Amino acid sequence: MKYIRPPKDAKPLMRKLLKDDETYMVPGVYNPFTALLAEKLGYKVIYLSGAALTGSLAMPDLGLITLSELSLFTKYITRVVSIPLIVDADTGFGGVLNVARTVRELEEAGASAVQIEDQEMPKKCGHLTGKSLIPAEEMAYKIRAAVEARKSSDFLIIARTDARNVEGIDKALERAKLYVKAGADVIFPEALESIEEFEMFVEELRIPILANMTEFGRTPYIRFEKFREAGVKFVIYPVTVFRANAKNSFDVLKRLVTEGGQKEFLELLMTRKEFYEFIDYYEYEDYDKKLSDWNP
């Protein structure tokens, strides 16, 4: 019973994944149910996407979400899954002190890793033009604050740089090297434009690299096997599930009107039985019965 038993601490597992030789496909989730689906299907780590979460709240990905909202959704998700959750914390919700509090709040909410980026506020989607960056040294201070604020050394600090399309590939590498020096566990070079550029980051940095394989962006569609061959550690698909659910929901809502009911497309719907199995419904029923049978 996910919402009754205490959540499992997944941070040691996240650190273990970081140290092995595997490459991990990391789906973006935006609520507890999509996270649970990913775990049931065998994914080893999941990603709470800022773009998908704000999209599900009918907001653009412009840093409008608050830390309290992000912490709440983090807690909702980590209560129902036992696999590690990487949380997209945008720019850390402010300066150095804000970043420290952000890390503490999200770690206490059950996250296993936090991602912080080097954009100025208001931030933009990493694959759009018009981005502005904070000075590299300021971002390094944020990373130091994040490292010092975490309670557990198993909690990972992921530093994202958006410099590739603002300052060029060489400056992006320079920034990444400084962020590694500041204590980042993983580097996330946003919006690279070829597999060769990812290979360059892997070779130059010698620490785990996270790749963003979003749709309709600046990075070409690269097969997961290519990322594995390049030595990339994590490949996130941040908005794929949200976009699929949004499109399917839109289509179903149209068909409901045009066809006068749902009978003609039941095959598109998850059955009651399937849903109950995913959320362990009958375990809750058994628990309720066990308590009702107890005689004080």
Structure, described:
The protein has helices at 11-19, 32-40, 50-56, 67-78, 96-108, 136-149, 169-182, 195-205, 224-230, 240-259, 272-278, 281-292, and strands at residues 24-29, 46-48, 85-88, 113-117, 156-161, 186-189, 210-212, 234-237. It is α/β, with parallel strands linked by helices and 296 residues long. The protein has 2 domains: 11-241, TIM Barrel, CATH 3.20.20; 247-292, no CATH class. The longest helix is centred in the last third of the chain and has 20 residues, at 240-259. The chain is globular and about 65 Å long.
In N-to-C order, the SSE pattern is: HEHEHHEHEHEHEHEHEHHH
Strand order of the largest sheet: 6-5-4-3-2-1-8-7
Catalogue the unreliable spans. Answer: none
In CATH, what is the homologous superfamily of the largest domain? Phosphoenolpyruvate-binding domains
How large a portion of the residues is in β-strands, by DSSP E?
Answer: 5-15%
Name of the CATH class of the largest domain:
Alpha Beta
Structural class, judged by helices and strands? alpha/beta
Number of helices: 12
